[in-house]
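Incident log, structure service

09:12 report received: a user says their structure output differs between two submissions of the same chain.
09:20 pulled the input from the user's history:
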Amino acid sequence: MAKTVVVGGGIGGLAAALAVAQRGHEVVVLERADRFAEIGAGIQLAPNGLHALDRLGLGDAVRETAVRMEALRFMDGVSGEHVASMPLTGPYRRRFGNPYVVVHRAELHGVLLDACRRHRAVELRSGSGVAGYEQDAVSATVVLDDGRRVGGDGVIGADGIHSAVRGQLVGDGAPVVSGLTVYRAVIEMSRVPDELRSPTVTWWAGPGCHFVHYPIAGGKYLNLAASRDDGATEAFAGIPVTRERVRREFGALGDIPHRLLELGDDWRSWVLVDRDPVRRWTDGRVALLGDAAHPMLHYAAQGACQALEDAVLLGSAVGGPAGELPARFAAYNAERRDRTAQIQDLARRSTQLWHPAGRAAEERNAMLSSLSATELHDHVAWMHGARDFGAADALPGSGHAVRAPQRAGA
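09:34 re-ran on a clean worker, output below:
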């Protein structure tokens, strides 16, 4: 039986392991940490992410615990004005074939982990940090930090933005520091005033900053994430900050967003990083997936969805004679690179929409408020409506993204 080694036991790695095992391969998943677990809070899953989970046989399990969103709401964070909403109910769900949901990261990871544990062809190994890989004409081997080796017909690097596999394959150094800091907290929904609760993803846009919140864990908690364009030059992750610090950083926002920010306890901060798109994420019998291949800022809410799409296509790629694996990995790369590069770019440019001030913010509000629900759906159709996850899916044209209007000479 053919054997595939997956490096990384996060959402993308487990999804890839399951997809490959379902094609009749033995799979070994190597996780650096001492146990298979997922940290973090909320994940947004657009219909394309759920389509990928459906292909893995897990869509129903995820939908059982997910919270279905009724709209994406865009608010002026200074004035409190409701600018625009993209409805996510009837026409949206009929057009794209699935709801738009939010889940707790640990819940999604748990569904994937349980499925891998149940599959007789998947072996999970924790405490297995990876240093790199070797390969020849017929096999690929992962080299662990302690010098041990784990071999197979192919290797999938799903070890995140600091991927050791990418470091050898691409060699593009450290991630790119975005200059943006995000502050995150999770609060019990019982603490949120009734008038501030809604089954929506809500953005409050302000000068050089924005704040987003949405319910997770079946509506038990509210996930808070506030981002500021502060010019940070050094990356850090999960640093505790005080409520007073958050209050100061987002002082430009108005009363309603501050009422929610004040509820946050145990705030932590991250400087966001990503990488520039690259054309090649495969090397013979080695392929990258998810953040190891195309790490993106979270502002397009597509990171998990794109990793799941990768996993589905990689599952298809391993089918067939072992000698064809390098060519099939290369075909997977060619199918995925343009779509993921477009989303990486969109995520980077999204702050142009959220962070303007003064007249530019007024022009943005006027532009967004003029769009119909159908026009808003049209703008996201290339992302949310994907079914094949590659070149067969439509890519955006010149008008694919909702952009902030630019002042003359800006």
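09:41 both user submissions now match this output. Likely a transient worker issue. Closing.
09:42 reviewer note: Residues 186 and 348 are 25 Å apart (CA to CA). The domain at 3-39+103-173+279-346 is CATH 3.50.50.60 (FAD/NAD(P)-binding domain).
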